[in-house]
Specification:
The protein is built from no helices and seven strands. The strands form two sheets. Strands 1, 4, 5 and 7 form a four-stranded antiparallel β-sheet that branches. The protein has a three-stranded antiparallel β-sheet with strand order 3-2-6, with no helix packed on it. About 10% of the residues are buried.
């Protein structure tokens, strides 16, 4: 990826266990400190044994995507079109 290139992507979230969970996805642009404006999903609920797709968002070379879940049974997959 070149420094001025952006990629449109989305995150697929899967709850593999037997209970619902909550998750967060956020994007830190160019190493900025975490801020409310960076959240793509915040404490979003996902049912047991279900999958969800986030909204599409753009990332650049120096951006960082972070994920977090309330249980260890949640998987995240970042993909592009």
């Amino acid at each position: 990826m070149q420094s001025n290139e952006t990629i449109r992507c989305y995150c697929i979230v899967t709850e593999r266990g037997g209970a619902s969970a909550a998750f967060r996805i956020w994007l830190r642009k160019n190493g900025e400190a975490t801020d409310n404006k960076q959240y793509i999903a915040y404490d979003t609920n996902i049912d047991a044994n279900d999958s969800l797709s986030s909204v599409k968002f753009s990332i650049s070379k120096d951006d960082e995507v972070y994920v977090r879940a309330s249980t260890a049974d949640v998987s995240f997959n970042l993909t592009s079109d």
